[in-house]
Amino acid sequence: NAGVTQTPKFRILKIGQSMTLQCTQDMNHNYMYWYRQDPGMGLKLIYYSVGAGITDKGEVPNGYNVSRSTTEDFPLRLELAAPSQTSVYFCASTQLTGYHEQYFGPGTRLTVT
Amino acid sequence: EDQVTQSPEALRLQEGESSSLNCSYTVSGLRGLFWYRQDPGKGPEFLFTLYSAGEEKEKERLKATLTKKESFLHITAPKPEDSATYLCAVQARNRGSTLGRLYFGRGTQLTVWP
Question: Which residues of A touch B (CB under 8 A)?
Answer without folding.
Answer: 4, 31, 33, 40-45, 48, 50, 56, 58, 90, 92, 94, 97-107
